[in-house]
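Give me the 3D structure for Probable glycine dehydrogenase (decarboxylating) subunit 2.
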Amino acid sequence: MTIFELSKEGRKSFFLPKEESYGYEPSELLPEESVRKNEPLLPQLSELQLIRHYTGLSKKNHSVDSGFYPLGSCTMKYNPRVNEKIANLDGFSQIHPYQSEDTVQGALEVMYNLQNSLCEITGMDSFTLQPAAGAHGELVGMLLMKKYFELKGEDNRRKVIVPDSAHGTNPASAVMAGFEVIEVPSGRNGRVDLKSLEEILDESIAGIMLTNPNTLGLFENEICEIQELAHSKGSLLYYDGANLNAIMGHARPGDMGFDIVHLNLHKTFSTPHGMGGPGSGPVGVKSFLADLLPVPVVRFNGRRFSLDYDLPNSIGKVRSFYGNFGVFLKAYAYILTLGGDGLKRASEMAVLNANYLRARLTKLIPTAYAGICMHEFVLKGSKLVSDYGVKTLDVAKRLLDYGIHPPTIYFPLIVEEALMIEPTETESKESLDIFADTFEKILNEAKKDPEILRAAPKFTAVGRLDEATASRKPKTKWSKDS
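Predicted structure for Probable glycine dehydrogenase (decarboxylating) subunit 2 (482 residues):
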C-alpha cells in the first residue's frame, strides 16, 4: 500500500502551536505569491504508522548490508561504518563553504592530503576534487582535453576514440564536450584491436578513452603500445577509473602513459554506491595539464592551506563550492586505514574472488573470453537460450527469489546475453559458494521446468514487472486519481 492509502482523516504525527501563539500570522513573513491558497494534499497518519511504513519499505530494498550484490562494473562492495562516523563528526559536518579559510584549515588539509594521496595512487601530478560523480569527471576530463588543444591552436582535433566495450558514459561525455566519437573494435581476445586503432589514429584525434582493466574484466596488456601510438600522433590518453579497484597498489595509470584520469571515490574508496549518493569523481592530470584544472585548487605554503583561484587557463568551476566534502572524508579515512599495503591487498582479493567465481561458473556456462580475468568477468548467456530456452533476464529475475541481487546483464553490448559479474574483495568464500550453488540450482530448474524462470520472481514484494511500459510511461508521483 502507498502511504496515501494508509491515510485517515484527522490522524496526525506532529502538533504545532496555534497561530495566535506566535503573535503574528506566519503568512505575513512571506510574499503573497509564495503563500498557499489551498492546503497541501498530504497523507494523515500517526507517527507509529509513519515509522512502520518507511521501515517496511526499507526492508524491501536490497543492499550490500542485506545480501550479495555482484553487480558487474559497479563495485558494490561493503564500506566500513567507521568512515561514515568520521564524515559525521561535528567539526566536519557542521562547517559551511562560506566560512573564511582560517576557520576551516582542517577541512582544507583533508582535501590537500587526499589530492596528494590520489596522485600517489594513480601516478598523476595534480588533482581536482570538484566533479560530483564519475560521468561528471569524464566530462571534466574531456573539457580539459578540449581546452588543451584549443590553447595549442589545434582546433582540428575534434574526435575521440572509444572502444566498443566502453561504459556508455564515455561516448556521451565526449559528445557533450563537443567531440565526435570514433569506435574502435575489440579483438578476439576482448582487448582493443591494435591494428584497427592504428588505422583510425591520425591528427584529427584528440584522445583515446580507455578503462583498464576494461569492462570485460580483462587487462589491456598492450597499453604501452597503445600509449605510444596515441602520443606519436599528438593525442592524449584518458583513463576511466571505474575499474581501479582491480589494480590499485599494483599498477598506476600514470605509469601506463595516461595523461588524464578520473576516479570514482564512491566505488573504489568507501562511499555507498547507487541510490544513496552523493558521488565524487576527482580528475587527475599530468603536470603539463595542471594549469587547466577547475578552480579553486587547494594549496599549502608550509604554514597554512588556501584555495587558489589563480589559474589563468582554467576551464573554470564545474561544481558549486568545492565538491562533495563528505565523500572526501570517507575516501581519505579509507586510504589512511588501509595504507599502501592494504590497498594492494584489496585489489588482490578482488581479483582472487572474481577468478574463483569464474572458475566455478564456467563449469556451467562459458565466459565471453577465456582465461584469467581481473576483478570481474562476463558470461556468455546465449547458451541459456540454446540449451534451456530461457534468457539472461530470466536467470536474473530468479536470483531475486533466492535473495541475491542479479549481476549486470546485457552489458557490454558486444557480448550476446551477457552476465557481468563482480564479487568484490569484501565477500567471503562462503558467499561466493552460495552464489555459485544458487546459479547451478537455477540452471537445473531451467533444464527441468524453464517456466519457473520465465515467471520469476515469485517471492519478492512485487512480481515480474512490465519493464517496457515502466521505462516508456513511468509513474513518478502519486496522484489522487491514479
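The chain has three domains: 3-60, 82-337, 344-471. Let me know if you want a second pass.
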